[in-house]
Design brief:
322 residues, alpha/beta, D-Maltodextrin-Binding Protein, domain 2, 10-stranded mixed β-sheet, globular, disordered N terminus
Length: 322
């Protein structure tokens, strides 16, 4: 009896301290990571890089599926309504924090139907113009826009997207007017810029850097405290004379409400582990991205703060919910 009395507490303590890998297995089947935008943008880039590492680490398939439309709400709603078993996840981003400021009503409860899991990356944004554009500097762009109100336009990944509101913030800081032209994702907006269909695009660095380095577009400035190593000749907005423009983008993973805490925790740990991979770090660094992996609570706090921040920006820019 004494031995049993001694053994039970020890056994219980051992069970509580067991690593997550010893808990009921997850993933036990392929995991779908939904990107709510078209392929080719930074959200898609981050999701695919991390999905590959998670597949390698767990031995189970993590695959990306693009469900586009309505500024990311179609894909987000799909995940919010999915089974909370850890097998359907959402790659969300800065735009997700903007949705309550853009839409009067969303088809899911924005405050509670999706659980923030962890960050994938944080990136600066880059202002780019077509390779054939006459503008070589931000100052030249602003001067022309002031002299010709409404003649220039700017593209975005959709109404209410981060690139849309980044453009609105730029207009406010530069005191210029440009017409907004929305597309179905940052990748589509970049194609439009390269085709001279729009004059300006402000987008996350992983979307901008490859085409800027390839000479397909011209980068005029980047946010952040220092220049990007991949675009060393491109000044920061502060250097370019617009210190008030300081937008940064974040990208993360979310799961449906009700997903077991142990799955959420294991997923965060697997992402944090992936962020230590030298190959992944190098690929992110080349694109100007800082690796993620934030704990669940810290990411949740970030999302809450971003919703408040972008609500204020949207109101100041005169963006009204539809």
């Amino acid at each position: 009896m004494n031995f049993i009395q001694f053994l039970l507490p020890v056994t219980l303590a051992t069970a509580l301290c067991m690593p997550l890998s010893a808990q009921p297995s997850w993933p036990d089947k392929p995991v779908r990571i939904v990107v709510p935008y078209a392929a080719g943008g930074t959200t898609d880039f981050a999701a695919r890089q991390v999905a590959q590492k998670l597949t390698e680490q767990t031995g189970k398939s993590f695959f990306v599926e693009n469900k586009t439309g309505a500024s990311g709400t179609i894909g987000s709603n799909f995940v919010a309504k999915s089974a909370p078993d850890g097998n359907t996840l959402l790659t969300n981003d800065t735009t997700y924090a903007m949705l309550p400021s853009i839409f009067k009503k969303l088809p899911w409860d924005h405050a509670s139907d999706l659980i923030p899991v962890t960050t994938l990356a944080i990136t600066p944004v880059v202002l780019v113009v077509p390779a054939q554009s006459p503008f070589k500097t931000v100052a030249e762009l602003i001067a022309f826009a002031k002299a010709h109100p409404g003649q220039l336009n700017f593209g975005s990944g959709g109404a209410g997207s981060s690139s849309h509101l980044s453009g609105e913030v730029f207009k406010k800081e530069a005191r210029v007017f440009m017409t907004h032209i929305p597309y179905k994702g940052a990748g589509d907006a970049m194609l439009a810029l390269m085709g001279n269909q729009v004059d300006v695009l402000i987008t996350a660095s992983p979307t901008a850097i490859p085409v800027a380095k390839g000479g397909k577009v011209r980068a005029l400035a980047t946010t952040g405290d220092k220049r990007l190593s991949s675009l060393g000749a491109v000044p920061t907005f502060k250097e370019a004379g617009l210190p008030g423009f300081s937008v940064m983008n974040w990208f993360g993973l979310a799961a449906p409400k009700g997903t077991p805490a142990e799955i959420v925790q294991k997923l965060q740990q697997e992402v944090a582990k992936a962020m230590m991979d030298p190959g992944l770090l190098e690929r992110f660094s080349q694109q100007g991205a800082q690796p993620g992996g934030l704990p669940n609570a810290e990411f949740a706090a970030l999302v809450k703060k971003e919703i408040s921040t972008w609500s204020s920006i949207a109101q100041a820019a005169g963006v009204k919910p539809e």
